[in-house]
Design brief:
Blueprint: E1 9-12, H1 14-21, E2 29-32, H2 36-39, E3 44-49, E4 54-59, E5 62-68, E6 70-73, E7 82-86, H3 90-95, E8 105-107, E9 113-114, H4 119-125, E10 127-128, H5 135-138, H6 141-153, E11 156-157, H7 159-169, H8 178-189, H9 194-202, H10 222-228, H11 234-239, H12 251-262, H13 274-288
Parallel strand pairs: 2-5, 10-11
Antiparallel strand pairs: 1-2, 1-8, 3-4, 4-5, 6-7, 8-9
């Protein structure tokens, strides 16, 4: 018996979106209409999170995450949400998600397609659309997620979503969950797409990094530079041109930025990360520009 075929279990999120687009996907997110931890009691459980009603199981030699359907509220704009109810309907669960194209589900028992916000229509029109007016106020990291999907999928913001974004960027609340912001920035700029950097500046998304940012003028293709010098810190080569003091940087990331600053007065040594050389070169170019 296939335990993942259940009338209350749904595939949700990115796998549904990518399957409809004909894009390969690695992982499938599952959502159980009810209590996922109770549902998984007869499986090999690896990890649970009671507060969020999530469970990780080992199924056919694969680790699978199953979330309970839940409702959330944002007590503080920009901070992590608080779960108010576990076990709501799948439609209520989909309401809390970021964009219509990520708010579709497919029931595992019979393949029934759930699309309360016309995500399929937005896929066809190649549009990124938020679910409600307060979406970016609740979670401004969604602005960077929108950039990521825009670049990765070749989509554009829906007109009303662009308006909501512009209005938020004119009055940013910097009481942001910086851990989540960094995660989205890393994923976006690790795609190594010049288009992401250009839109980041043109649309004013750089303002999310903190107030009083200096806008760089870079004529070189950062994408070409990173292709020539591959690094797991490619995102930092792009964003090292900005003030990143709000982000939670690792020791290695701090070292890269510190050396990029030291190169103003010191010659490079054997200890100088090559990413620092790239950032310093781009900073000089920006000054010349």
């Amino acid at each position: 018996m296939n335990q993942l075929e259940n009338e209350n279990l749904y595939q949700v999120g990115g796998a549904i979106r990518d399957r409809l687009l004909g894009i390969k996907y690695k992982d499938i997110d599952y959502c159980y209409e009810g209590d996922a931890i109770s549902f998984a009691k007869d499986m090999e459980i690896l990890q649970t999170n009671q507060d969020f009603g999530t469970v990780r199981v080992l199924y056919e030699d694969k680790e699978i995450d199953i979330a309970s359907t839940r409702e959330e509220t944002y007590p503080q704009p920009g901070k992590l949400p608080v779960v108010t109810r576990i076990g709501c309907s799948i439609e209520e669960d989909l309401k809390r998600r970021d964009f219509t194209i990520n708010s579709m589900a497919r029931r595992t028992s019979d393949g029934k397609f759930i699309d309360p916000f016309n995500g399929l229509g937005d896929l066809e029109e190649r549009k990124i659309r938020v679910l409600h007016e307060r979406s970016f106020i609740d979670d401004p990291t969604r602005i960077i997620r929108a950039l990521k999907f825009s670049v990765r999928l070749g989509f554009n913001l829906a007109k009303n979503t662009k308006r909501i974004q512009d209005e938020y960027l004119e009055n940013i609340n910097y009481n942001i969950c910086w851990h989540r912001m960094k995660k989205e920035l890393v994923e976006t700029f690790s795609l190594n797409k010049q288009k992401a950097f250009n839109k980041f500046i043109k649309d004013g998304l750089y303002k999310l990094l903190g107030p009083n940012q200096t806008v760089p003028v870079v004529k070189s293709s950062i994408e070409a530079i990173v292709k020539q010098y591959p690094t797991k810190y490619s995102w930092l080569v792009y964003l090292g041109l900005f003030d990143l003091s709000n982000l939670e940087l690792t020791r290695a990331e701090k070292k890269i930025l510190e050396w990029a600053e030291r190169l103003k007065t010191e010659k490079p040594s054997n200890n100088t990360p090559f990413e620092s050389l790239l950032i310093y070169r781009l900073r000089l170019e920006s000054l010349d520009g």
